[in-house]
Amino acid sequence: xxxxxxxxxxxxxxxxxxxxxxxxxxxxxxxxxxxxxxxxxxxxxxxxxxxxxxxxxxxxxxxxxxxxxxxxxxxxxxxxxxxxxxxxxxxxxxxxxxxxxxxxxxxxxxxxxxxxxxxxxxxxxxxxxxxxxxxxxxxxxxxxxxxxxxxxxxxxxxxxxxxxxxxxxxxxxxxxxxxxxxxxxxxxxxxxxxxxxxxxxxxxxxxxxxxxxxxxxxxxxxxxxxxxxxxxxxxxxxxxxxxxxxxxxxxxxxxxxxxxxxxxxxxxxxxxxxxxxxxxxxxxxxxxxxxxxxxxxxxxxxxxxxxxxxx
Length: 311
Ligand code: ZN
Prior knowledge:
Elements: E1 11-17, E2 22-28, H1 30-40, H2 44-60, E3 68-76, E4 83-88, E5 92-97, H3 114-118, E6 121-129, E7 140-145, H4 152-162, E8 167-177, E9 184-196, H5 202-213, H6 219-224, H7 229-237, E10 242-249, E11 251-252, H8 258-266, H9 270-280, E12 282-286, E13 293-297, H10 298-309
Parallel strand pairs: 5-11
Antiparallel strand pairs: 1-2, 1-10, 2-9, 3-4, 3-6, 4-5, 6-7, 8-9, 12-13
Bound molecules: zinc ion.
Zinc ion (ZN) is lined by residues 254, 256, 287, 289-290, 292.
């Protein structure tokens, strides 16, 4: 396997272990999560919640095929309101939270209290194939209750319960205050996921469970110390050998565009377009996923209106 260049250093790797009875994937997502935090102006704890969910969506989607897309939604009753993340086979990921300002005091371990802003609710996963080319077979959807709210445990519970794949998941996002900007900086983000497929023997499962529960360092500590994605897998697998099958660059990417914003407005009621035209002299569309704003001026909106009303 040839090493691939990563523009921002972020990467997703996918491999197999124990005679292909164990799937392993790991990701370094520091820059991707930093971009998500900048775009959405998330608080420290909301950044951790969003970053863990986006990294989990990448890991869960590590075996996606070319036209597949995976969405994870966590809807709880905590102040963050909801978290969405979407990944595809190209290593592209995007995500947002309903309330980016949600914040909570540190928990009893002195850590960001992600559970405190997520609350109780449901964890959803949706897998779609061929969405971008208009081919939409019934999407696969699974859901489980939120059992932890710390996100990694929720991914593991989802896989074990809904997909019958016993799994170990570690996810981490580390932020620190930036005294120059008064804001904060994402200094490390990433995660590792180990999936036990049918046929995995008890000894292997036991060894992996032991390795995961006894990792002395957190994922973010390992990344701070320069750990690669392969190193994270090594830490989670103990002495079990593995081979990497695939590596992908990872980046925050959104599929929105000015053209799409215009066609979204074009899909509204004629009366609604009329009122945007007469009252606002245009339209401003903000993409949920990336917080990009598109301005549709009066001339363009007038054109949309004429096309819409001539249907
Ligand atoms: Zn967007």
